[in-house]
Amino acid sequence: MSSTVASANIAITKTPPRADVPNDLDAFWLPFTPNRAFKKRPRLISRAKDMHYYAPDGRALIDAAAGLWCVNAGHNRAPIVEAIRRQATELDFAPNFQFAHPQAFALASRIAALAPADLDHVFFCNSGSEAADTALKIALAYHNVRGEGSRQRLIGRERGYHGVGFGGIAVGGMVNNRKFFGSMIAGADHLRATYDREHQAFTKG
Which domain holds residue 77? Predict the structure, then answer.
């Protein structure tokens, strides 16, 4: 018998321990992955450097997606490694609830200076999914405090991807991502994708 528990940033499905099995692949549940097929023929990455991942057998694999679009400067770059090491020796985590670190304010100011003039506040998130859900909440709250609480329609694109939070799934246009989760968020609708597969062209309007 198994049960599922959630704690902070980790969801844990409890199953009987298998400590006697070396290199057991069963406990880790991979997202967006056919897990049974993966675990029959696992594709493992043991290290990375610059634009390559490396498999345990030493094969170099080009990381054409930059991780999940977040390692654009390359892997294992010495200046970045040193910056991470230096910060970890000073402070590895600071909560943003009633506290903050001076460098968070410095980074926010730098980002605001790069953004268009009317985008002058920064809200840091842990992932794209969290950022998408936060943006949806900000939009709904903004109209609510202006006395226009009835403005609750959320419009996404068919085939669009906005993360795996409930808001991002509801506004996202990937039907399989939401088909098991019921009504999701009321008021979400979708426009056609800009790419017209039938005519191999981009649509206008």
Answer: 3-87
